[in-house]
Amino acid sequence: MKKIILILLFSVSAVTLGQMNNTMKFQSAEFLYEKGDFKTAYHLLKDFKSDVDEEDPLYNNIVLLTASSLFKLEQESRLKGEYDVALDYAFESLDIIKEGIELEIENFEAREYWMHKNIVNSYFGQGEINDANDYKEVLYEAYEEGKLPEGLDRCFNFSYFKWDDKNIWGYEYYPELGDPETEGSFSKIVYFIYSTNSDGTDNEQLFRLHVLKFHKLGNSDIDFDYVLTLRAGSETNESSRTLYSYTYKKDFDYEKLQKDIKEVLTEVFKPNEKTDD
After folding, report:
1. pTM for this prediction
2. Are residues 173 and 265 in the same domain?
3. Is 149 in the same domain as 16?
4. Do residue 221 and residue 104 come from a single domain?
C-alpha cells in the first residue's frame, strides 16, 4: 500500500509536491533510492533538507540518505570513466559526510576514508596523479594511527580502468620497504586483470601484475627496488614470470608505472601489435 501511495505522489504536479510535509518527502526520496533512482532521490532530499530543523529526528535520516545517494552517484560516474563528474559528487559527499560526523551518525568516519580513496581513484583516472597525493596522505596517516575501516586497512584501490573488454584494478599496500611487513616477499602494488560479463562487471580473474620487492642480496650495483612480475593461478597452483624490463625505485613514478602496465597488457592481449611510444 505504501508503494502505491508513493507512486501516486510522483504523478502529481511540482506544486503539490511542494505542499507535501517533510516526512512524506523523505519517504518519497527513500522509495526512489530503493528503486535505484539515486539522482532524483538526491535532488529531492537537497531541495527540502534546509526546511527541516536539525533537532528534528528526521534530519539525521536525511543526512544519511543524502550521503548514500551521493555515494551511489559518485560510484556510477567513476566506473563509467566520467571522472570529472565523479569528483564533483565526491567533494559534495565529503561535505555531507563531515556534517554526519558532527551529528555523530554511526560509521560516517569510515565513509570519509572511503571517499578519499574514491577521489584518489578518479584523479588517477584523469591522469592528474599529483592531485591525488593529499588524499593518499590522509589514508596513509590513518593507517599509521590504526583508524582505517575494514576493507581499507591493508590496501586501497588507487586505479581502475578499462582495457578493451577487461577490467583493470590497481591496489596499493601501505607498508614501505624496511617495515616489518615487507620482510620476505612483498608486493607494494598489485594490478588485477579481469575478463568481464556482458554488463561490464568482473567475471574471471585472468592474472595479476605485481610490483614486487626485488631481493638485492647485498648487491649494491642494483639501482632498483621493485620489479614487475606476472602471476596467474591460485596460491596453491601459481605460475610466475618476472618482467625484468620493468623496474622501479622506492619512490614510484606512477605515470611510468601506468604506462608500463598498459604496455604489458598490449603485449599479452595483442602480441602482434606494437605499442605506441
Report:
1. 0.86
2. yes
3. yes
4. no
